[in-house]
Backbone:
């Protein structure tokens, strides 16, 4: 299964993002950002399933929480940045 | 023992508070560090704490709720953010040393909005007068820790918005009792302890941020680790190092209690007990009480022929816990004319019973005759 990882500036922001998604019926899982894609060092993101990404982005834009970076986790486990 | 020192720390807490602290100490780790279950459980707990605080006190969002060690910590952060050497800072005449000492340390020019005790209209006029003259920052407590006087903070906040002056509110005695509306007030910062009216453990507090702050402590935040500067976003910017997670677990339960019981109901209960104490003491000619409108659950008094500390000591020996002296608020005592003698302070909580205040009053009256 493919997943998208929405990168967040902080753990608290990631939690807030997940809560906003949850309220809109979109499951989001807060996790640490893999080192390979975490430019600033430690970071957190919210993982959402591939089929819910468009809806998730729409919800976040509506809430004024548009993400800066989104990565696709491919079947191989590698991450590829996609345009949100 | 009859405990009447809730303005310092509420001693009796909802049972869920101690249970939550005990559970936390054995099951959760540090938030924002490891991604493992105990770490993420800590993160979830801390977030719930921020979320509930944002909801209860109208903070802009959970990011703008900073966990502190106490209200003093929060006030220091707020003053550090807004006050520079020589800044003209307007304060009420009833501020605690948690406000006046940080202002003195920063060499601020302090202007006092002087008003007689319990004269809310005069207090408002004094703030309006000085704001018109021009000030850089306003700091005001919501309720005096010595006299329980509720300052007209809503109106002062309105003045600050009109003049575009940032407002810091010390909600040490009002959090959990009176409505706190950080966003509606347009407050720059609101500081509160966790261990008083929010029924959390000692060593907890909250700073609601209406604007960005400046760090006082520097260190790990679990974010932007490559940078040697503190993150430029809240709450990380003001929270270096591992927070008091177990304390936050208790604070969360304390806030849940407040939400469930309702601030208005707690206020009514405390106000009733305060009036009961005042009426009981006023029957004794040797006692002078400090009462007035807009008073919360804090009552100061003096007794003829007694040094306030000696009276408190005597009451303590008889199983009644009160606080005497200057209550870390010499400015408040100076404003009320009690600086020289100090006062004995009685303060109640949601858990104080009528029979307890009656028994305390009876002993005080007996000692004062």
Residues:
């Amino acid at each position: 299964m493919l997943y998208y990882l929405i990168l967040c500036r902080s753990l608290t922001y990631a939690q807030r993002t997940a809560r906003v998604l949850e309220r809109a019926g979109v499951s989001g899982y807060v996790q640490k950002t893999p080192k390979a894609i975490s430019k600033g060092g430690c970071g957190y993101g919210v993982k959402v399933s591939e089929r819910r990404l468009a809806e998730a982005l729409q919800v976040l834009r509506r809430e004024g929480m548009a993400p800066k970076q989104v990565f696709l986790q491919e079947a191989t486990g590698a991450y590829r940045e996609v345009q949100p | 023992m009859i405990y009447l020192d809730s303005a310092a720390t509420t001693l009796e807490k909802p049972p869920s508070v101690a249970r939550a602290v005990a559970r936390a100490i054995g099951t959760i780790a540090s938030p924002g560090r490891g991604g493992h279950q105990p770490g993420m459980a800590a993160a979830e707990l801390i977030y719930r704490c921020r979320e509930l605080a944002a909801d209860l006190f109208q903070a802009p969002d959970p990011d703008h709720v900073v966990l502190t060690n106490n209200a003093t910590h929060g006030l220091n952060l707020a003053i550090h953010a807004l006050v520079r050497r020589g800044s003209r800072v307007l304060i009420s005449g009833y501020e605690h040393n948690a406000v006046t000492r940080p202002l003195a340390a920063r060499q601020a020019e302090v202007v006092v909005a002087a008003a007689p005790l319990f004269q809310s209209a005069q207090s408002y006029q004094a703030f309006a007068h000085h704001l018109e003259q021009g000030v850089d920052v306003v700091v005001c407590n919501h309720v005096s820790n010595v006299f329980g006087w509720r300052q007209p903070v809503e109106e002062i906040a309105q003045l600050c918005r009109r003049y575009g002056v940032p407002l810091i509110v010390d909600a040490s005695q009002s959090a959990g009792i009176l409505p706190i509306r950080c966003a509606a007030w347009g407050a720059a910062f609101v500081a509160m302890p966790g261990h008083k009216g929010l029924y959390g453990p000692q060593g907890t507090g909250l700073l609601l941020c209406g604007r960005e702050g400046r760090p006082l402590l520097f260190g790990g935040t679990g974010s932007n680790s490559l940078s040697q500067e503190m993150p430029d976003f809240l709450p990380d910017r003001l929270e270096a190092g591992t927070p008091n997670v177990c304390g936050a677990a208790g604070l969360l339960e304390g806030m849940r209690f407040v939400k469930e019981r309702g601030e208005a109901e707690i206020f009514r209960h405390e106000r009733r007990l305060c009036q009961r104490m005042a009426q009981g003491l006023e029957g004794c000619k040797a006692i002078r009480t400090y009462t007035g409108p807009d008073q919360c659950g804090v009552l100061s008094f003096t007794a003829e022929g007694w040094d306030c500390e000696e009276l408190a000591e005597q009451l303590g020996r008889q199983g009644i816990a009160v606080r005497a002296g200057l209550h870390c608020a010499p400015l408040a005592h100076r404003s009320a004319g009690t600086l020289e003698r100090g006062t004995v302070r009685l303060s109640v909580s949601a858990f104080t019973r009528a029979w307890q205040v009656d028994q305390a009053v009876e002993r005080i009256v007996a000692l004062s005759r």
Notes: Residues 218 and 240 of chain B are 6 Å apart (CA to CA). Chain B has two domains: 2-10+263-368, 15-261. Chain B touches chain A through 23 residues (CB under 8 Å).
